Amino acid sequence: MVGRYPSPSSSQDAYAPPRPQRPPAPINPTPPSANPPTAAPHPQVAPQLRPPPTQPPPPQTLPHNIRHTYPPRPIRPPPPQTLQQPQPPPAQIQPQLQPPPQYQPSQPGPHLTPANMQQRPATYSHATPVPLAKRPQPPPAYPHYQPQAPPLTQPAMRNRPSHPMPMRLAPPTAPLQTMSIHEQATPPPGMHTASITDSRLLPRPDMSPSAMATRISRGDPSPNPPSDTAPFTDPITGQPTPRMAVEPAACPPEAFVPVTNRAVRLCNSAFPMTIALAKKYSMPLGAVVQPLAKDDPVPVVNFGGAGIVRCRRCRTYINFSCSFRDGGRRWICSMCGFTNEVPSEYFSPLDQNGKRRDAAERPELHRGSVEFVAPAEYMVRPPMPPVYLFVMETTPASVKSGALAAAIAGIKNSINSMPNEGRTRVGIITFDSAIHFFRLSPGEDAEPSIFVISDINDVFLPTPESIMVQLDDCRPCFERALDMIAQSQIEIKGVVSAPSCLGAAVKGAQKALEYSGGKMLIFAASRPTVGPGSLRERGDNSYLGTDQERGILRPDSAVYSQMAVTMSKYQISCDMFLCPPPPGHYLDVSTLAPLMKFTGGELFFCHNFDAPKDSPRLQLAINRVLARETGLEAVMRIRATKSVRCTNFSGRFFLRSADLLSLPNVDADKSFAVQFQFEDSSVGEGPFCLQVALLYTTTTGERRIRVHTVAIPVTSSLSDLFLRVDAPATLNIFARQSADGMKDRSLNELKKNLLDKVITALAKYRQVCQTQYPAVLGSSELLLPDSMVLLPLYMHGLSKTPILSRDASGAFLYKFDDKSALAHSVDIMNAAETSALVYPNVIQIYPWPAGEGKVVKYPPGAPATVATLKSDVGVLIDDGQSLILWLGRAILQRFTSELLGKAVSGPVDPRYLSVELMRRGNTIKGPISQVYTTVNSILAARKSFMPFHVVPEGDQRMQPRVEALMTEDRSASTMNYREFLLEVQRRIAQTASRK
Ligand SMILES: [Zn+2]
């Protein structure tokens, strides 16, 4: 029987015995989130890319009731400024900048409740409380909306502080964003209007260079990050002031270090007090967590023999939001309110403010993220070593394409990068129509031997002790075996075709790992066709985008799900590297994917494997999987404040009980999402706390508990909630829901649901505004709170991704396997990746923009529209899933010459320019070195093995794909961004008129 971590009575996080009979847990999508590390720059359009017209066209109006029809998708959509035939009159968007109306301390203000600690400015000793009424008006949300507006009369509007006002100081006036696509009514007093005559001024992410860098690495910032502690200068007192959402109870505010927005990103930086309010809010309440995100170093705390201090009632780990009483002898759990005794070893007196005197020296009391060394009670066997079993297909499909050779090269090159403290174990299995177990022996001259199992319906394990061996002892034999497999391909080359017994090989690999647990890395190029788990051809691409596609996106058989559940029980994870050769055979990724989904594995999918182009990428992927920070035999539990239940978990795991996620493997690239549900009608006055605890074994053999704790204010005000939406995190939840929903619902239904959610929320917001600022609702303006100004763009972009759009699937030359692979990659995306997926980062990079000099920074971004793709520039397009360098016709030759270092005569196959750019790397001299540096930094921010293509203008295969990535443009079945905003506006008006 395999040793495992039983659940000690004192620890709910400890590993409980597996229950193999449990069916795979239903997975529900949830949103990722990330909070910007620095103050959020606000959306802004790079003016140099699209200079404003010297003479603005006269304002035109668009009748309220016009419905658009959409012509067939043109090869090249027209610039968004003009609508095509059949053509309604050009719309004019007139966002009005609104200095929010004068603050009126009347109720019901969009404030936190008086009980909320955020409303006590006196908590900071150096902050002089200032009556709110004396404060200047908050600045407009988006100063760039009014570039052509008359000079602003309020200085505050021109000098917006770089940080938004902290929650406890914010006057109740919401920073309203109004946009009118119709002729503007007379603006209410105090409100400035700006005519917008071109699409540059539609709401977009901030595209300044620094904001682009942040967007790529962490996602669009939230205007009200819950944990932003960067000091800012108080506009009233002129004092530098720290900011945070909730004051830490255990330590002085100035010592507090919050969780980064990569580790935990909440969908809203406030929490509704009651279930009734949550229903009115109608947007998802949840969080995106990336527990092992590569961030600042997390301090390690060892409680030694005293044991980790946890709440006796709810098992929460001690944290900064817990308060101390009775001179430090008792502590109050911030989740459940239980009063616990402080162990004598942990006692410290309190200061005059009730904070622990030793809080600044104890990371768990002043840092949101901390890692505890797990004592003996968290384990019953020694922590498992890193174990790697390589399972390789040796059919002609795999050999002839070069995928097998690339895999072997990748493994050999990564041996030194694998974690190895002397305990690492390895093994090799190959398969075609039979399974080949490699027996490895210690010694310099040891030769591998092979056992062939032909009876694939009844796989047994020959000599279990010599299949998985110590890497240090058997490395020469291990490398010789790899060479032997590479050699054998020569003999195989004559074979025309051979069946694959992938399912049986996975079973055999599972048997080899049952005794130790570990990671199996499967390299396959064909669909399993013989033995258990063989699959039929069913990927008829004509069904893509139709109502019939759901059936094909669902697994065809439960065999692999069942295998995965068994593997999870034995702490086995499964990574798959699927490389079907041209012309792209159907592998049935939908059916194979549960192997990764329930075991925390990685899915690498490369259609039409082209060795010269894709081998380097496959090798990078192998290296990344073997070398990155990884947690083994892990369990994760997410706890929330009493009365709130964590539910709808999304990601790669097996749900072992209602809220215990089993993760045989978890790594720095994996994000999860969770949603919150009320269990009672109210959560009390708060704050709302969330704690993510991941118990895992490091690859160096230590048992650790990574704990992230976040605390946010509770509010009874609906407008407060709307002001504190974290749009990127909310989008991540929506994207996961859409990717998951593809299997059960039609694309139209999914798209309609998305739109309905946004309409409902914005209509609700409009209602809130109506009660407070009736003046701003003169006509049919589109009102957007500061925090949600990008949400319509996100929803528009999501409906245009290949997940929800048939047009995009066609443009991307998607097949069923591609679509399945994309859907499964959404379940590990963080907020930065989903933001890029729906609105790609577009950067004009070649020639390098003037004025940037040699400083390595991102050039400014540009709108995702074909107008950006000019013939004399090179544009980098990052959608989080691939990176494209698009080169205009007039610039291609120059780029090629500069890259290859000589005058190039005749056509150069552009497919290999990307390989050449990356191969030359740092040795490149001249202007292209900046291109390389930027490409490299984006790849580093994503997974390093993300595909990178160089696409010349007009490329038959890739140009439609590039155009499909231009989110703002129209496609055959979707409207353009401006039309989408019109539609949102129309629907909101419709909703309002029904009330
Ligand atoms: Zn508790």
From TrEMBL:
<feature type="domain" description="Sec23/Sec24 trunk">
    <location>
        <begin position="383"/>
        <end position="625"/>
    </location>
</feature>
<feature type="domain" description="Sec23/Sec24 helical">
    <location>
        <begin position="726"/>
        <end position="807"/>
    </location>
</feature>
<keyword id="KW-0931">ER-Golgi transport</keyword>
<dbReference type="InterPro" id="IPR012990">
    <property type="entry name" value="Beta-sandwich_Sec23_24"/>
</dbReference>
<dbReference type="GO" id="GO:0005789">
    <property type="term" value="C:endoplasmic reticulum membrane"/>
</dbReference>
<keyword id="KW-0256">Endoplasmic reticulum</keyword>
<keyword id="KW-0813">Transport</keyword>
<dbReference type="InterPro" id="IPR036180">
    <property type="entry name" value="Gelsolin-like_dom_sf"/>
</dbReference>
<dbReference type="Pfam" id="PF08033">
    <property type="entry name" value="Sec23_BS"/>
</dbReference>
<feature type="domain" description="Zinc finger Sec23/Sec24-type">
    <location>
        <begin position="308"/>
        <end position="346"/>
    </location>
</feature>
<dbReference type="Pfam" id="PF04815">
    <property type="entry name" value="Sec23_helical"/>
</dbReference>
<feature type="compositionally biased region" description="Polar residues">
    <location>
        <begin position="115"/>
        <end position="126"/>
    </location>
</feature>
<dbReference type="InterPro" id="IPR029006">
    <property type="entry name" value="ADF-H/Gelsolin-like_dom_sf"/>
</dbReference>
<dbReference type="GO" id="GO:0000139">
    <property type="term" value="C:Golgi membrane"/>
</dbReference>
<feature type="domain" description="Sec23/Sec24 beta-sandwich">
    <location>
        <begin position="631"/>
        <end position="715"/>
    </location>
</feature>
<dbReference type="Pfam" id="PF04810">
    <property type="entry name" value="zf-Sec23_Sec24"/>
</dbReference>
<keyword id="KW-0653">Protein transport</keyword>
<comment type="similarity">
    <text>Belongs to the SEC23/SEC24 family. SEC24 subfamily.</text>
</comment>
<dbReference type="GO" id="GO:0090110">
    <property type="term" value="P:COPII-coated vesicle cargo loading"/>
</dbReference>
<dbReference type="InterPro" id="IPR006895">
    <property type="entry name" value="Znf_Sec23_Sec24"/>
</dbReference>
<dbReference type="Pfam" id="PF04811">
    <property type="entry name" value="Sec23_trunk"/>
</dbReference>
<dbReference type="GO" id="GO:0006886">
    <property type="term" value="P:intracellular protein transport"/>
</dbReference>
<dbReference type="InterPro" id="IPR036174">
    <property type="entry name" value="Znf_Sec23_Sec24_sf"/>
</dbReference>
<feature type="compositionally biased region" description="Pro residues">
    <location>
        <begin position="17"/>
        <end position="40"/>
    </location>
</feature>
<feature type="compositionally biased region" description="Pro residues">
    <location>
        <begin position="136"/>
        <end position="153"/>
    </location>
</feature>
<keyword id="KW-0472">Membrane</keyword>
<feature type="compositionally biased region" description="Pro residues">
    <location>
        <begin position="71"/>
        <end position="103"/>
    </location>
</feature>
<dbReference type="InterPro" id="IPR050550">
    <property type="entry name" value="SEC23_SEC24_subfamily"/>
</dbReference>
<protein>
    <submittedName>
        <fullName>Protein transport protein Sec24-like</fullName>
    </submittedName>
</protein>
<dbReference type="InterPro" id="IPR006900">
    <property type="entry name" value="Sec23/24_helical_dom"/>
</dbReference>
<dbReference type="InterPro" id="IPR036465">
    <property type="entry name" value="vWFA_dom_sf"/>
</dbReference>
<dbReference type="GO" id="GO:0000149">
    <property type="term" value="F:SNARE binding"/>
</dbReference>
<dbReference type="GO" id="GO:0030127">
    <property type="term" value="C:COPII vesicle coat"/>
</dbReference>
<dbReference type="GO" id="GO:0008270">
    <property type="term" value="F:zinc ion binding"/>
</dbReference>
<dbReference type="InterPro" id="IPR036175">
    <property type="entry name" value="Sec23/24_helical_dom_sf"/>
</dbReference>
<dbReference type="InterPro" id="IPR006896">
    <property type="entry name" value="Sec23/24_trunk_dom"/>
</dbReference>
<dbReference type="GO" id="GO:0070971">
    <property type="term" value="C:endoplasmic reticulum exit site"/>
</dbReference>
<feature type="region of interest" description="Disordered">
    <location>
        <begin position="1"/>
        <end position="242"/>
    </location>
</feature>
<keyword id="KW-0333">Golgi apparatus</keyword>
<feature type="compositionally biased region" description="Pro residues">
    <location>
        <begin position="49"/>
        <end position="61"/>
    </location>
</feature>
